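Backbone geometry:
***
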Amino acid sequence: MIYELFSSAFGTIMEMFKNGGIITYVIAIIGIYGFASSMEKIHHLRKMSQVDLPQIMGDVNIAMEKGGSLEALRSIGKYQNPLSKIISEALKIGYRNRTEVEDAMERVFIVEMGNMTKGLDTIKTIIEIAPLLGLIGTVLGMWYTFKALGVNANPTLMAMGINVALITTIAGLAVAIILLPIYSYINSRIEIEIDMIEIAKKMTNWRIAEMKIKVDSNIDKAVEALKESDGVVKVRKLLDPDANIWISINPNMLEKSIKNIIMEKCNTKMKIVSSKLKQ
């Protein structure tokens, strides 16, 4: 029963292609391409959203308690989705200044937006052009019909012309009707991802950062230079073989990276031993 139904439907479709002419084949080809592109885009978006924002931020908070921002970077590096990439740039405050971090986050956002929307214009164009191709087929079919209405009217040619008009119209509308809701669904998924990115930006608007650094020389001078810098809240020396200065920073006010502050004022090398960010 099912086989007979399938066989009958397949035969009907093949008959439509045969009678519809080349325009029907063109509509079918662009329709299949649009459908395949839509499915690939949906698969990409679903794969992207397998790990959501609460899970990523949960990993960041756990890693931050264990080993600071570097550990947090390592913990979310495995995800490689837009959210994790945006948050990764936000974790680099201190290593970079506020403007550099914001610029890096914006670059990531632009790249990921490009990846998410890639191919959408093609799908939209197919949705718009398929009915127009169907309309061309309709016009050609009607032309065949009126041509057959000559002095010696040929009913067979008239029927063929009407057949072409109907088949191409159906094919064009079918492609648009199938692809339009899929296109809308893809757009809605992209909007959800964009909303999540905006929330991630707000959640990574760190209130305070605490860092331990090791300066090779001129420790007292480095402490004074840090105290005079915008965004640095507190500074004190440490008696620690791995780090000799502790810093508390307001990330939103940090105009220069810690490394640049030390290099400009003290002309000495330094390394960040640990960095913890708090919301």
User: Anything to note?
Assistant: Residues 2 and 8 are 10 Å apart (CA to CA). Residues 208-278 form a domain with the Alpha-Beta Plaits fold (CATH 3.30.70.100). The chain is about 70% helix and 10% strand. The radius of gyration is 32 Å.
